[in-house]
Structure formats: structure tokens, C-alpha cells
Design goal:
164 residues; mainly alpha; 6 helices
Length: 164
């Protein structure tokens, strides 16, 4: 094997530095990769086990060579996939990515309160609180457009003021 700059003594020194930078500054979204890997690995085991259980269970009842059993098991696993994926991803997020899970719960709760609240000042204060809690920005501000009725009243006043 030929020694190149990437594989020689000088080439191996930069690898730990790059690895440290990637992990420290989250250059690759490793949290998401780990979360999805855990979720899909667990989902594969659950659905594979479910498929095997259905095929073996119904195979005993209907006969080992029945293609109806295989088709039924395939349809059952396909129908269960999305709900199971959603639940497993929530479980993984709740266990390993607590901050994202809490932010999602906070935003969902704010959405429920938003449907019941009509006071604009209260809504603005709650919105600012939710944004600060979930996103933790350095500065938060809300810009509101003037209401349609206020702008119509202002245009009427300006129009009547210029006619005088």
C-alpha cells in the first residue's frame, strides 16, 4: 500500500481535530442521524417480529404453503408501519432528544391556548414567552400589521382632512 499525504503520519494527525470539530460544533446533524437510526432499527425489529409472528401463527391455521398468509402479513405490516413509526420516533425523541420533545409539547399547548384567546396583548405576550422558551433567541420582537378597520378609518380621516 502506497503512503499518501492522507494516509501518512501527517495525514492521521488532522483526523482527530476534524472529528472534534464536527462533534463540538455539530457540523453534521449527528443527533438526527442517531435518533433516526435508533427509531428505524427498533421499528425494523418490531415489524419484522410482527411479520414473522403473523406468518407463523396464520401458517399453522391455514397451512404452511398458503400465499394468503404471506399476503395478509405483508398488508398488515404495511398498514401498521406509519403509526408505529410515529410512535417509535416519539419514544426515541422523548428519551434521547428531550429538548426537541419539550419544545414540540410547548408549541402544541400554545396552539390550544391560541384557539381560546382573543386578547391581542395577551396573545403577544404568550407568543413571546413560547418563542423564548423553545428557541432561546438573544432577542425577540413581534411586528403587527395595523388592523384593516384602523387603516380604513385613517384613510377616511386623511381624505376628509385634505378636502377641508
Amino acid at each position: 500500500m502506497a503512503v499518501t499525504p492522507a494516509t501518512g503520519p501527517a495525514g492521521t494527525r488532522w483526523r482527530p481535530v476534524v472529528l472534534a470539530a464536527v462533534l463540538r460544533y455539530r457540523l453534521y446533524d449527528l443527533d438526527r442521524i442517531i435518533s433516526r437510526t435508533l427509531a428505524y432499527g427498533l421499528l425494523t425489529v418490531l415489524l419484522g417480529g410482527g411479520y414473522a409472528a403473523v406468518v407463523l401463527g396464520f401458517g399453522q391455521l391455514l397451512g404452511r404453503r398458503s400465499s394468503l398468509v404471506v399476503a395478509g402479513a405483508t398488508l398488515a405490516v404495511a398498514g401498521v408501519f406509519q403509526p408505529a413509526r410515529r410512535r417509535v420516533q416519539e419514544l426515541v425523541d422523548r428519551r434521547f432528544n428531550r429538548r426537541r420533545y419539550d419544545a414540540a409539547k410547548t408549541i402544541t399547548a400554545f396552539g390550544a391556548r391560541l384557539r381560546q384567546q382573543v386578547d391581542l396583548d395577551t396573545l403577544t405576550a404568550e407568543l413571546l414567552g413560547v418563542v423564548e422558551q423553545t428557541m432561546q433567541p438573544t432577542q425577540v420582537s413581534v411586528w403587527l400589521r395595523p388592523s384593516v378597520s384602523a387603516s380604513h378609518d385613517q384613510h377616511r380621516t386623511e381624505a376628509s382632512g385634505t378636502a377641508l
